[in-house]
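Two entries, shown back to back:
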Amino acid sequence: MNFHDSILKGGAAKEIVKVILEKSGYLVYPYGYECTFSDVRNKLRKSAKNSRTVRRIKSSPDIRVYDDKNNDVFLVEIKMRTSKKPWIKHNQMKSYKEFWNDSILVLVTPQDYCFYAQRICELESKDEYDLSTDFLKFEEIFLRTNPNDIVHFKNEAKKFIERPSKASKIPINS
């Protein structure tokens, strides 16, 4: 998968998660540095110092989710992974734990159930994750989620994620 295919598929995964949450009655807002700091995004990616502030900005979760029934807010990082044993770079997980330990990591994968979630504070930093032991099903974290929506969007996500790419495989940097 080339870089642009990765961005497109990752963006689709984020949109699918947003739609599932909105259909479930949650209010969903953009949060990550891709939207908040869009004017300096490329500069931070290429040449910014690796200061604590830069690491916090670059690792900020993608969306903010408001549960009006329980008057609670969640910060959510969304990742799309195609491997059976999904991975998160050690330096990324270290930043998540340092700055966003109370946030939720959502993995969208064509494997088995497709939508998985876990609180960052519950995850260890390791080379690969086992979806069945390290993560919960999406609706076990987001309790208002309709199981029928999960089934519907699972099929849609798998179609999009599994679509072949013409380019060679390149690791996803997000």
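entry 2 starts here
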Amino acid sequence: MNKIVAVFFIPILLINLGCSLKPIVEPRASPLPVTPALNNKTSHLLVMPLVQAPERITKKPFGVKISPDNSPVSPERFAGYHTGVDFETIASEQNEEVKIWAVCAGTLILKKYASGYGGVAVQSCRLNGQAVTLVYGHLKLSSIIAEVKSELKAGEQIGVLGNGYSTETDNERKHLHLGIHKGPAVSLLGYVKTKAELDDWLDVAEYLK
């Protein structure tokens, strides 16, 4: 008898309280913004190089030691300590243009095809009062419209990512390699042999917070 009372009591109570049970609906993903997000916390932070940049650092962060045996990327052709940060793309972006924006204001000092990158752009700017050069790797070279020696504004589009596994990315996956090299000298090294050599580079992710 007690069990029967328990079964019928709960729905009666819900009706008396005016409660209604609703199905759980999964939230829809928010659409990606189409313009770069400007950091406004402090003046030394950088503009995001592409939408949802921090969430894209999933395989090769700054300083990780890579070899063909431990790499999250397969096949892996490089080895050493990673000098930059890799921002990955998602499946739906493989056949779409992925815009890349200048993370700071400064001069475009180089654009060329380079082994290991495909299209690459290098920009000079100042970060915390220090001269640095920014390496944007795996871009579609023909999409870099700005001329060398021209000034770029923070948030200005530099170009778009090259197509994955093509000459535009030197047969690498579609992603952005972004490195910050200390000083005005240009270095296109994507990896260095020793951990001590990483002292010549800065972690991009630390300036996107």
